[in-house]
Specification:
Elements: E1 3-12, E2 15-24, E3 27-32, E4 41-44, E5 49-52, E6 54-59, H1 72-81, E7 84-89, H2 100-113, E8 117-120, H3 136-142, E9 147-148, H4 157-170, E10 174-176, E11 189-190, H5 193-198, E12 202-203, H6 206-222, E13 226-228, H7 234-245, E14 250-254, H8 256-260, H9 282-293, E15 299-300, H10 309-312, H11 329-338, H12 345-351, H13 354-359, E16 375-379, E17 384-385, E18 404-405, E19 408-414, E20 417-421, H14 423-427
Parallel strand pairs: 1-4, 1-5, 6-7, 7-8, 9-10, 10-13, 11-12, 13-14, 14-15
Antiparallel strand pairs: 1-2, 2-3, 5-16, 16-19, 17-18, 19-20
Bound molecules: (4S)-2,6-dioxohexahydropyrimidine-4-carboxylic acid and zinc ion (2 copies).
């Protein structure tokens, strides 16, 4: 028994080629122009783009502790709908992912209730309080793929340096939320012309860039693999570009919202535009796009950060930071960057598949014979408006409501099993 994905459009060295894919067990067994076989389940994906399953190295699944915002079940269902087959979940849960027991709990729940593969990240400091390092060796043993205090910056340079030394020994990346607390003081939007005009407290770019600069120096001194979360500033991109040129082991990720929006796009007191780091200036946004294009920024992630409607209704000053992203990420990237000609389809797909796999040393992210069958099928034609009410995520907090986008995933296969498939793929009678 196996499954044939029939007549999909595959990207082969940047060209689109119509091919069949045979999946048996959890592997891609064969890729060829015509694969026949009576024993196989046939899924007709004619005219649809077939890519490796997307990999999102920055997701907040909220469980344990904040199940009103999201659960492993709803967060991974949201991932599947967004075309993601692997998500790395951040440790700012309650309890924080700072002990093997919490890692195991998440892996167990993901196995029982998850639609996609979940890779936990372990905390750098106990309870993410920045006071005491976690037992990183024990966290690695339990299965974390990286170390991060995401949600807060590691304030102490000494602590960051110690963490990097241990991370080198363990062969784990340090994944950093870059934010100097002494510079933020209750800010809720980017500090600049916009915050002044609106009378809102600002978060200056330096709050991010000081940490990036400091940590690049520490990564160079320790030899650690240092990965920067949700980069948002032009100066941050410049620092990373320079560090890469000098051979420092630094990598970076960027979110669709920082590539597409800037502070001037915020319509008013709407917390669906509130996230950390904030939407920056137009100049910053342009530098992020250029940085992703030239490879300074390695990958696209969502920083999917669901909150309840009640929390987000508190307004710009009081609502928690964060927006959801799993179900709009690829349609946004496709519509805003591929359809406009700014990026090739291959560039965008690579930055959501092969590149994160390579950077984090994961055995996923490619479609080839013998590979693990993580596959996403995408309708590049149909335009649809973003409607958060249709999300599988519990979080509806997005600034993209009503945006007309193309590039919607219609089927997601994880480890050889169809994790999700759109009703209309069924409706056309294409599944036999
Ligand atoms: O916007 C954000 N939301 N940024 C973070 O760093 C944390 C995240 C969250 O956990 O809600
Ligand atoms: Zn963060
Ligand atoms: Zn985050």
């Amino acid at each position: 028994m196996g499954t044939i994905l029939k007549n999909g459009k595959l990207l082969v060295n940047g060209e689109i080629v119509a091919l069949d894919i045979l999946v048996a067990g959890n592997k891609i067994v064969k890729i060829a122009p015509q694969i026949e076989g009576a024993d196989y389940k046939i899924v007709d994906v004619s005219g649809k783009l077939v890519t490796p399953g997307f990999i999102d190295m920055h997701v907040h699944l909220r469980e344990p502790g904040f199940e009103a915002k999201e659960t492993i079940a709803t967060g991974t269902a949201s991932a599947a709908r967004g075309g993601f087959t692997t998500v790395a979940c951040m440790p700012n849960t309650r309890p924080v992912i700072d002990t093997p027991a919490t890692v195991e709990l998440i892996l167990q729940k993901a196995k029982e209730e998850g639609s996609v593969r979940v890779l936990p990240m372990g905390a750098i400091s106990v309870r993410e309080l920045g006071k005491e390092l976690t037992d990183m060796a024990a966290l690695k043993e339990a299965g974390v793929v990286a170390l991060s205090d995401d949600g807060v910056g590691v304030q102490s340079s000494k602590m960051m340096k110690d963490a990097m030394h241990i991370a080198v020994e363990l062969g784990l990346p340090i994944v950093a939320h870059c934010e100097d607390d002494s510079l933020i003081e209750g800010g809720c939007v980017h500090e600049g012309v916009f915050s002044e005009k609106q009378g809102l407290k600002g978060i200056p770019s330096e709050a991010e860039t000081i940490h990036i600069g400091r940590d690049i120096i520490l990564a160079e001194a320790t030899g650690a693999h240092y990965h920067i979360c949700h980069i948002s500033t032009a100066d941050g991109v410049r620092l990373v570009r320079d560090a890469k040129q000098r051979g420092v082991k630094v990598t970076a990720e960027v979110c669709p919202h920082h590539l597409i929006l800037c502070d001037e796009d915020i319509p008013g007191d709407d917390a669906n535009y509130k996230m950390n780091p904030p939407l920056r200036s137009q100049r910053d946004r342009d530098a992020l796009v250029a940085g992703l294009k030239d490879g300074t920024i390695d990958m696209v992630v969502t920083d999917h950060a669901p909150h309840t409607a009640e929390e987000k209704q508190r307004g710009m000053a009081l609502a928690p930071f964060g927006i959801v992203g799993l179900e709009t990420a690829f349609p946004l990237m496709y519509t805003k960057f591929v359809k406009t000609g700014a990026f090739t389809l291959q560039e965008v797909v690579d930055r959501m598949t092969k590149v994160p796999a390579d950077v984090f040393n994961l055995p996923y992210g490619t479609i080839e014979e013998g590979a693990i069958a993580d596959i996403t099928v995408i309708d590049l034609e149909t335009e649809k408006e973003v409607d958060p009410q249709t999300f599988a995520s519990k979080g509806h907090n997005t600034p993209f409501t009503g945006w007309k986008l193309a590039g919607w995933p219609v089927l997601t296969m994880v480890d050889g099993v169809i994790a999700w498939q759109a009703d209309d793929l069924n409706g056309k009678g294409e599944v036999h």
